[in-house]
């Protein structure tokens, strides 16, 4: 097993991240969308609470 220094591994990981395409952007968009849907549902559904 080859030992790779931390700095070399980090540099290689950063270079590989550039080649991955829009994966990170899509991940962020999906997370923001899910959070937005949850907040919208909470905002709309809280009006249905009745204090009889």
Automatic annotation (TrEMBL):
Keyword terms: Membrane, Transmembrane, Transmembrane helix
Residues that span the membrane, as ranges: 26-45
Superkingdom per UniProt: Bacteria
Name the UniProt record assigns to this protein: Uncharacterized protein
Lineage: Bacteria, Bacillati, Actinomycetota, Actinomycetes, Kitasatosporales
């Amino acid at each position: 097993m080859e030992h790779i220094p931390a700095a070399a591994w980090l540099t290689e990981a950063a270079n590989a991240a550039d080649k991955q395409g829009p994966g990170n952007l899509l991940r962020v968009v999906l997370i923001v969308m899910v959070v937005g849907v949850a907040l919208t549902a909470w905002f709309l559904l809280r009006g249905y609470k009745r204090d009889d």
